[in-house]
Every structure is written in structure tokens, then in C-alpha cells.
Amino acid sequence: MQPPRCCCLLLLLYLFLLSGTWATLEGTVTLRLLHTSTFQNTSFVETEGLALLEDIELGSLDKHTWSIHFHQPWVHPALTRKDWDTIDNMFRIYLLRFSHLINEGAMQKDVPYPFVAQSMIGCELYPNRTSRTFVYVGYNGQDFLSFDTDNVTWTLSQNTDLSRYVLAYLKNHIAFSGRVDVLFSDTCINAMEKLLTYGRAALERQELPVVTVFARTPSPQQLLLVCHVTAFYPRPISVAWLRDGQEVPPGPQLSTGPVLPNADLTYQLRSVLAVAPQDGHSYACRVRHRSLGTRSLLVPWGNSQLLLITALLAGLLGAAAVAALLLLAVWRRRKHQRVEESESRNSTLSKEA
């Protein structure tokens, strides 16, 4: 089943903002639960959610029944029925109290409807087996408040009537904050460790990047060299332009866009370099990615492209020459065999005569 549209938008935003670190299973691994509540009025709230292990969608929350829909076949078997019952009960309580608290604050402080409240809850597991739990709450797309799990306290991210109301409520209900800390810390880390075991193949998946270099001419005085990299996984990647073998430093002539997701859970990236037509330099796009190991992909343009074509033609001619020599050798061997067979038959006939 496909995730809700709102969750897809939330996922795209998360992937757009995600930093390009070289995370591996030996490094830091993060489990995130993204939740969006749209408050249409005082009596109607629409809630949706999405769970991510790194960038893999584990499941989504049905906005009508609040039941979990699994997106990977290995997710449900990873936990026992008791574990899933605990998680289901925990989030129903959290979502009910979250909606009630935000709605009460909006009515008390005359906040205009409609508005959107979001939260990102999760945990990080570090290489030394230590962990951290986090809770971030947003209001209309901006940071609202966060939960400090070390000190079990809430911190304001914006100073408004609504945020102060919510903070005062949470400070007066210390037991609720403690329950949030215990439930999310223990449950999140335990669930993540089991999910890592079952989902290791998905997390370790690697797809080679496909690189295309082409040019555009917005004006006679300018040439835009475009390096389009797509179909790679995992997300972290390094793309650079080389001028005569030297890396082009950052500047106004170089523009590299964000890493964007494809529909098949691979990624794409585009880097554009502005140059003067026929400036006499050779250019190449260099790509480094985990799937390539210690190697790099180097796709040339300009003079270096002619060298590449020459090298390819030379390779093809060399292969053709080798094939011709092999065919000649086979033909000569067969001809020799036919001569020997003919001489053998003639000798036999001579003896019989």
C-alpha cells in the first residue's frame, strides 16, 4: 500500500534537508517517526504518519483507523506481536494527547484555524552502542519546541502564546515527560536493533550511479556543461568538475543542486558548470560513490571527449584485429587438418591398390 500523500511530502522534505554523510551500518543509524496533524477546526483533526529507518520507508499510519500499514516485507516479522501491540498503544496515546494539548492551547490563545502541527520522534544508535532519543515539534512548518532527553525537559524554539501554553502544560506534567522519555528511549532502541537484523540487506543495498554529461548554450558567450548523475544508492555522493585534471573550486560559475529521490528509492543529482565556448580547456565530471569502492567515475567533455572517442575507437580496432587473427588461426588449422585427412586417404587407397 502506498503511503499517504502528506507523508510523501514530509518524506521529500526530510530527504531534501538530510545531510550528505557517509552513514553505514557500522556508523550512526537513525529511526525516525514523522507525524503530521492538520487541525481544520476545534473538532476535526486529520493525522498521518510515516516511519523511516535511515531513508527506507517502514510503514505508514492510516489516517482513518490509525492502524499501521507495512511497506517492507521484513518489518512485521522483525518484532513480536507483543512488541507491535506496545508500539500501537504507545502511539495512540501519544497522538491523542498531542492533538488534545495543541487543540486546547489553540482555543485558549485564540489561534486561527486551520493550522498544521508536526512532530519527528526517533532515536540514533551510535557505533559504540550508545544511543540518543529525540523529539521535535513543529507548527506551520517552523520549529516549535524540542525535548531534551538528557535533562528530561522541553525547550522552546519559538516564543508565541501557543508555544508558552504548551510548554507550561508540559512542565506541570512531569510524569508525562518522563513517560515519553522512557517509552521512546527503550522502545525505539529495542525496535531498531531488531529491525537492523531483518533489514540489513535493504540497508546495505548499493546501486551504481549512471552519469551523463551534456551541454546547453543559453547565449553565444556562455556554455553550460551539465553533469547528471542518477540511479545511485545509498544517498551520499561526491560530484566535482575537473578542468585540465584539476578540481574546479566553488564559485559563481559552479552550481550543484540537492540530492533528490527517484521513484525506485534511488537518487539523482545535477551539477552545472558555466564556461566560455572554446576556451581551450578540457573538462570532466568526476563522481565518487560507495558502490564504486575506491574508484571514481570520470566522464569527460571537450578535448578530453575527443581523447575518449579516440581511445574507444582504438580499443574497438584492437579488438577487431585480435578477432581477425583468431579467425585466421582457426582457418589455417582447419585447412591443415583437411590436407592431412586428404593425404591419409590417398595413402590408404595407394596401399589397397
Any overview of this molecule?
- The protein is α+β, with helices and mostly antiparallel strands.
- Helix content is about 40%, strand content about 35%.
- It is built from seven helices and 17 strands.
- It has helices spanning about 5-15, 75-80, 80-110, 160-170, 175-200, 200-205, 305-350, and strands spanning about 30-40, 45-55, 55-60, 70, 115-125, 130-140, 140-150, 155, 210-220, 220-230, 235-245, 245, 255, 260, 265-275, 280-290, 295-300.
- Helix 3 (about 80-110) packs across helix 4 (about 160-170) and helix 3 packs across helix 5.
- The relative contact order is 0.10.
Helix proportion range: 25-40%
Low-confidence stretches: 1-24, 303-315
CATH superfamily of the largest domain: MHC class I-like antigen recognition-like
Distance between the termini: 88 Å
CATH architecture of the largest domain: 2-Layer Sandwich
Order of helices and strands: HEEEEHHEEEEHHHEEEEEEEEEH
Strand proportion, as a percent range, falls in 25-35%
Count the E strands. 17
Radius of gyration, taken over Cα atoms and rounded to an integer in Å: 31 Å
Count of discrete structural domains: 2
The major β-sheet equals:
8 strands, antiparallel
Structural class: alpha+beta
Counting H and I runs of at least 4 residues, what is the number of helices? 7
CATH T-level fold name of the largest domain: Murine Class I Major Histocompatibility Complex, H2-DB, Chain A, domain 1
Which oligomerization state do the chains in this entry correspond to? single chain
Shape: elongated
CATH class of the largest domain: Alpha Beta
- Largest sheet, order of strands side by side? 4-3-2-1-5-6-7-8
Average pLDDT: 82
